[in-house]
Amino acid sequence: MKIIEENYDKISLILLDIMMPGQSGYSVLEEVKNSEKFKHILVVLFTVKSFSEDVQKGKKLGADAYITKPFSGKELLKRIKDILGNGK
């Protein structure tokens, strides 16, 4: 969160793994989406967790997209372009 705090005005999108050491991606997502200062930031969750309850939890917390591993760089780039509105 420290990096987000220090650079929030320069960040448009965060690629966020759900399973991280220390703080879960869900927790970071919740902090970002519940903050007036950060809520403009789009969040893409990625994880090996593909169960529907995991996807639903991410959506409920405000994730803008959810990508399950493994994925190709091409697929990730397409999803990011779609989210940013440049998916032509």
TrEMBL record:
Residues 1-84 form the Response regulatory domain. The keyword Phosphoprotein applies. One of its GO terms (molecular function) is phosphorelay sensor kinase activity. SUPFAM superfamilies: CheY-like. The keyword Phosphoprotein applies. Keywords: Phosphoprotein. Signal peptide: none annotated. This is Response regulatory domain-containing protein. It comes from marine sediment metagenome.
